[in-house]
Structures
1.
Amino acid sequence: MATHFPMPFTPAAIPASWQADFNALQRPSPITQLKEPLLAEKNIQLFIKRDELIHPVIQGNKWRKLKYNLLAAAEQSAKTILSFGGAYSNHLHALAASGQLFNFKTIGIVRGERPATLSPSLQDMQDWGMQLEFISRADYRMRDSSEFIQQLKQKYGEFYLLPEGGNNTAGRQGCAELLDELEQTYDVICCEVGSGTQFSALVSQHASSSQAAQQTHYLGFVVMKNPTLLQQLKDYFQQQQVAYSNWSLNHDYHFGGFARADDTLHKFIRQFKQQHGIQLEPVYSGKMLYGIYQLIEQDYFKPGSRILAIHGGGLQGLRGFADAYPDEF
């Protein structure tokens, strides 16, 4: 598949000092086929795109969203990148690591009060040189307003502004490239959905590619309570004139909300690793794979279907559930 997003950055734009580390992150992640009796019984082929293996820290769609934003910051000669997230934000965690790797100063605007003891994620960010600024939830809701951004510039000086979760055109451009790595076609491609950045990028890319005639269904598993997300995506596709409609969102497996989980989900994740040797986490990938297996059991997918699940990384989030995974810590 060929990427049809605008490509403002070329390999020549990669700073020479970045070449080795940047190219290492560019390697296509592998695809693993799962084998077990349920899949054989239901005549389903299930594969996982192993984006968690892109890098030990800068994993999955977090790297894909950062890639062109980092290049844009370098092209603009920015010295500082500022972004937003919560106390366990995979996005801020990956940004802090990228800042250390590619020599940017990073500033993380963190939702909520500063805890007495930093979480492991926040401690990593600070250790990697990220300046942490904790703000109230009320102020955090103003993060997209021009007045609030101007206040941040008055406080910190000039910076490259990276939206929460990398949710911008450059972020979607990086996510869309995942389809370039697929050498085979699939009947269903499943994706974890938080902000919807990766999901919207994949659907848009498919619609504009030479594979548009291939009626792949894109199924997004929403990991939090977000009843407005469906309309947001419809509005985005309408604005971008994306005519492809073979997609849907599933809201049944968020387990009560973002970063919420229960013993059922934890047990599934532990058993999945024991059976397949693949680590999931309970914020994103665990919910998606649990949902896929539930739907397979319910005969949701047609017999003979080839399904690809995209593992979005974020394994550092396991540390927020250390009691449920004692063997991991």
2.
Amino acid sequence: MAKGTKWQGIFPAITTQFKVDGSVDLQATQSIVRTLVQEGIGGLVACGSVGENVSLSPTEKRDVAVAIKDAAGGAVPVLSGVAEITTDQARLYARDAQRLGLDGLMVMPPMIYGAAAPELLAYFQAVAAASDLPIMLYNNPPAYRNDMAPELVAQLVPIETIVAIKESSGDTRRFVDLYNAIGDRLLLFCGLDDVILEALALGAVGWVSGLSNVFPQECERMFRATLTGRRDEALAIYRWIMPLLHLDARADLVQCIKLCEAMAGRGSERVRPPRLPLAGEARTHVEALMRRAIETRPG
């Protein structure tokens, strides 16, 4: 693995906290990070989809990433999401992330439109060339209308700094197809919460997760139980948390996760427009799921 990168375990995608006036609350974001580190997570992702990357200004993105890195105190690796509309903007952010001391990048496909395969290849090659930081590719075709198919990923593995892929297609067969295409060249990360046990069984070594912000200890127990063959323990936790894990596949996953965080006393549900807090039936549904999870929380 390039540069000895050994990312593994649960990497919560950190929510960006906001003040009542809508400005970024760096102190509240750091408080969340310190608690998660104390609870034994394996790494952190700043400014990902759950971190509302595209709703932040360029300065805010950099400030949030640095604040999360500082709060982690070197205990775990901190990756920053790269979610830009143009290649030049993505290259600039990658260079700045290295200058600011981040540990790696989670690079999303170009935003807004669906790119052709040659465009995707050129984009990832350009971003990788902009810094020496290790890179986790992010494949999420339902959200970003770009599919990093195994044969496309195989064309990127000669780039040494590309060391991992976050697979969020929802098709667990992809983990097998990726291995067949590239062997163990990349670290496989599950990026969709409600297929994590299946992904671990098929070779994933890590999990970039939204709901681990809410129940990190239970998610960690489930993750480790799976890897050490404690099937019944892992399955019991999985069944308990699955109704919440399904929220990660919704278009309003950010609002769902932040509401659950607030109900768990771990953050605020404030989001930045055009997102709005959950209301009506959607809110009632998520609140009911969360209350049930708290009431039946495994010992």
